[in-house]
Amino acid sequence: MKNKINEEINRVKRDLYLKQASDYFDKYGYKNFKISQLAKELETSVGTIYNLFNSKDDLYLEYLILKLQNFMNSLNEKQTNDAWSNLELYLSCKYEIFMQIDKNRDTTIITDPYFFHKLDISNHKIVDDIYNFLIKQFKKLYPNSKMDYKHIAILFKKLSDGFIESYLLGKYDTKDVIKDTMNIFFKGLANKK
What we know:
By secondary structure, the protein is mainly α.
């Protein structure tokens, strides 16, 4: 019984610390995030945080998973029966969250635009949920097709990742980013207009 109680206490602590760390990551980004500052804000020790999260990268990974879960919740709440609108919704939510995080701080999220690729969450259930959302939309758009829907979903996601990476490397006007993404994906670069 004592082990169950300790496990539950640690789970609650972990959730509370992750919530506070998320606010901190949103405000300062990964590069400027300091475990010691988080410990000070939580009125706990650095060791306590490291007992719950093995490293800053581990904590950041949990933060990204939380963001993806919030992203997926937003997609599920706002989706319609129209597949095209749902793909635009996906892009809108994805870009909105990213741009909102980036605008809340003085620097870009990271100095290394490939940092996100180094944190492997590809085997997490939330990533499968996101791909399944996209697969469902492509199946609606192209029913009875022999296409590999998962392959198409991955390409769509990677194209939108590319727009974000491009923004990280050099800020640009994003007012048409959803339309541009849809046009490039469905019509190709030459027919972008």
